[in-house]
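Review form for a predicted model. The reviewer records the input and the model, then writes brief findings.
Reviewer: anonymous (R2)
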Amino acid sequence: MSVSSLELLRNRGRLRGNRYVKFLLVSTLLISAAPEARAQQDSSPEKKVAQSETNAAQTTQSDTDTQVETITVTGQRETAAKAQVSTDPTSAIATTFSLNQKDFNSVVTATTVDLIRTIPGVNGGYVNGGIANGLGLRGWSGTGDGTSIAAYIDNAPVNYLSGGNSNGYLELHPLIPETVETLDLVKGPFSVRYGGPFSFGGSLIINTADYIPTGFKQSIGSFGRTRSLANYGYNSGDVKFYSILEGFHEDGYRQNAYTKRVNSFTKLTVPIGSGTLRSSFQFFQNNFGQPMYPP
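Model under review:
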């Protein structure tokens, strides 16, 4: 055999060896990639859902094993009180508002309308000191001199049955605001006791105080407005007495709109038998001019 033949056989052997090595490498790579493929198949969505359900079941089991503190909720039912038949204005089958002196102390007052104005739904305006202040309620206009509200002071009706201006004319200027003890407003003509021909908008029930402590008050405002108030009060427990004097002056913001008023109110309260006697006396003088009218 020649040298060239030997060399050819060597080259063929080397080639076959290289092919064998490549075959071994490829086989090794395929074998190592098989577990990764299986892992990818195991991480499929179905497998993930099954795994999540298993974890949730384990969590639920652990929560069940945990003891939860017992919470007790108790309630109480109260029986509604029966309606009481009474002469008190608040027992009326209607919307009622009640105010007392505690409520009045938080309101700056110069006229009685200032007290009534604090009630929701009531419209009240200050007019010249000699004309009734307009009061409106439940859609009734406040420009009618209060003719749509029936008013009572210490159970005495105040509305004028007839007048040159209008029937039901409501004049509240003689009432000194500081003497008011309670004020009740029944909306609408629903009060059997206090209703009447002028209660279309409502009924206004005012009660004066039995006792007012001794004191003095002075106020000054614009347009020459001054108001002085002096009171003397006596209270021995059973017998109560007070006398209050008001002086008011105002030039007004229009021509011929002045007001000069002197007002005095005295009240005596004494027990008689099983009841109480209340007597009052009032002096009221008011001089005023009317704008747009000859002085």
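Findings: Residues 75 and 244 are 54 Å apart (CA to CA).
Further findings: The longest helix spans residues 3-42.
Recommendation: see findings above.
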